[in-house]
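COMPLEX REQUEST
Ligand: adenosine monophosphate
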Amino acid sequence: MLKLWNTATRSLQEFHPLNEKLVGLYTCGPTVYWTAHIGNLRTYVFEDVLLRTLEMEGYAVKRVMNITDVGHLTSDEDEGDDKMEVAAKREGKSATDIAEYYTQRFVEDTATLNIRLPEAPLFCKATEHIPEQLELIQELEKKGFTYQTSDGIYFDTAKFPNYGALSGQKLEEKEAGARVAVNDEKRNASDFALWKFSYPSVIPAKAGIQDEKDSETMDSRLRGNDNKKRQQEWPSPWGIGFPGWHIECSAMAKKYLGQPFDIHCGGVDHIPVHHENEIAQSEAAYGVKLANYWMHGEFLLVDGGKMSKSLGNVYSIADLKAKGFDPLALRLLFLGSHYRQKQNFTFEALQGAQNSLNKLRHHVRSLVVPPMAIGGTQDAEKGLDSRLRGNDNVTDFKTALEDDLNTPVALACLWKILDDASISDDQRVVAIVSMDRVLGLNLTQEIGRVIAIPEDILALAKQREDVRAARDWAESDRLRDELLRLGWIVKDTKLGSELEQK
Ligand code: AMP
Ligand code: ZN
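STATUS: Structure written out below.
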């Protein structure tokens, strides 16, 4: 029985989806103004493991991920500039080009980590769902949850009694903890923008304009607004503008998954603001729960602290590759720690994961497997292969993942399978193929590589192993050259020899 930690109830709960066979899963996606860093990627690996575990349990999963390509401001207080517009200026491109470029980077980076993404339309852009967002805001307006300020339409959190339930913070506590209000037109510090105006109306008193004589000042203020013309803006019943950051998730979740749906995920930083706000606007508008289970990935730290540009420790996949690491070593590193624990990234730890990955690959390559063992598993259903029933390690592997995705224990089961002398190689292969469907470490491909080596090459390699065992170095070298001539490089490692195609 699958059990998941639900942030909303602060408890480990048995998972019961709304529909017996199909799980609705919403995962907040990237703001595509910059390359994803390894912290972001940790959260996406956790969500990928969740998806694969649900499949292991026999569910089909309808998963949605949004692409934030408008409206995410540099401050969570609904102030500052739009991150997309900032990036557009920085790179001298249009906001649309920026979104396209960084979405592509995101797709490439996540692919190197074997993170599966939903396909369009379920991998969905905020800018392509403006009507749905406007409809939701209008619904909220109709029900009396909104008010207008000079710079936008806001959600009045005091009107939603459940506000703060996810993070366990009462509205008054939030108010007390909030920084000095940046926007004194907001009724409550936790109120948030649903729609922001491109051209906030200038209230003369606020602009420091005393009387008519100051009209020149007023003109320049208005020109100032004009100069700030946004690249991305849309008409709305309230004025030209753009959506607030949170509304896209509520609108797209409703459109593709309906409301309520089963599981909603993100990083822990989303709990107090983004997810509280999603819940408030969705539940206020439609009067039913947004999602039944809320799951959050803990943060990745770097060298014991927060990642920051000023410290130069905001690493991307490209940075790790440039240092010679395989991105899957990062995935293995992430799997070695439970998603609800903070994890500290260091290059020593990554090197350790890289060594473990190499060792795993080596083990898997050295398995002697009849092609049947592989063919059989490819045809097997998505769940764990039936031939594995009764194998303790495989059962433990499944139990570990069913226990709120306990990947560190699941990994230990994989190592035990490799080390257990009582299991035959073909059973091992079947187990590894099944486990790798969830772990996503490309171990299955490694098995394939052994199979792809022609018989005569394998025979020569075996002959070379034998002469090496007999310490006949001259013959061993001759066989190495022979293999090289045939296109195969022999590498001697501590664990035995490996064959690689030239
Ligand atoms: P963003 O693009 O900023 O919305 O972030 C994308 C995802 O990464 C969100 O689910 C965040 O919660 C998550 N995230 C951001 N920083 C970290 C971090 N240091 N460790 C883990 N997850 C993070
Ligand atoms: Zn979201």
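REMARKS: The chain has 18 helices and 17 strands. The first helix runs from residue 38 to 56.
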